[in-house]
Amino acid sequence: MALSGRLRMLADMVTPGSRLVDVGCDHGFLSIYLVQEGACPAALAMDVREGPLAAARRHVEAYRLGDYITLRLSDGLAAYRAGEAEALVCAGMGGRLMERILREGMDLARGMRELILQPQSELPQFRAFLREAGFGIVQEDAIREDGKYYFAMKARPGAGDSGQMPVGCGGEDAGTSELYDLFGEHLLKSRHPVLFAYLRQRRSYLGRLGADLEAAGSARAGGRLEEVRRELAQIEEAFCRYG
């Protein structure tokens, strides 16, 4: 089983020996790969839609892994039973939907050893949600694939924060906690090259947008322009962390 880059990034975050539950499994490739490679002794692949689950079933049967991979129709964690897995993977959906899934199954999520998450949108809000819910992000990674950026994180219940926040590049506290929510603490601290490329692309886009808004000169454009300028300042602070 060959995985796409974004799925391989998730697979590499799973602690070997963990039983897996893949929420929103789509075609089941991640579970098949991890079991086939011996990284997971068993997997539970769940999806809210019949179509993807049927495709996953065909793939599991084709690889003759039916004794190791269980497939289950489930809206989020609704069909999951406590103690069935140590590692949860959730990917391929927006941050708000992922937050809803975790909120509705919070007791089950807190019973996991680790959560491997790849929200497709609303990353700052999602990182803040994890922190406020008592999950600590202990690892992050990023990849650019087919022209799109994917950001993944491993979180553990009760891991807490990383301690004292460093000051900003100007010598003062420049909203580091907010910056970590925006771009990822571990990505910034490791000076991740994919995040750097994303920041460059985003800065270029916002620069053009800001020029257009300034030229428009309307009150509505003025409000949006302030938002753009604030985000550009945050991006410059993030660049400062790269030295």
Folded structure, characterized:
- The protein is of the alpha/beta class.
- 47% of the residues lie in helices and 20% in strands.
- The chain has ten helices and seven strands.
- The protein has helices at 5-13, 29-36, 50-62, 95-104, 106-110, 123-132, 176-183, 185-189, 193-216, 219-240, and strands at 20-23, 43-47, 69-73, 87-93, 114-119, 135-145, 148-157.
- Strands 3-2-1-4-5-7-6 form a seven-stranded mixed beta sheet, with helices on both faces.
- Helix 1 (5-13) crosses helix 2 (29-36).
- The longest helix has 24 residues, at 193-216.
- It is elongated, with a radius of gyration of 20 Å.
- Residues 162-166 have low confidence and may be disordered.
Q: In DSSP terms, counting alpha (H) and pi (I) runs of 4 or more, how many helices?
A: 10
Distance from first to last alpha carbon: 40 Å
The major sheet is characterized as: 7 strands, mixed
Strand-residue proportion? 15-25%
Mean pLDDT: 93
Q: Stretches where pLDDT falls below 50 for ≥5 residues?
A: 162-166
Share of helix, binned: 40-55%
**How would you classify the quaternary structure?**
single chain
Overall morphology: elongated
Q: For the largest beta sheet, what order do the strands appear in spatially?
A: 3-2-1-4-5-7-6
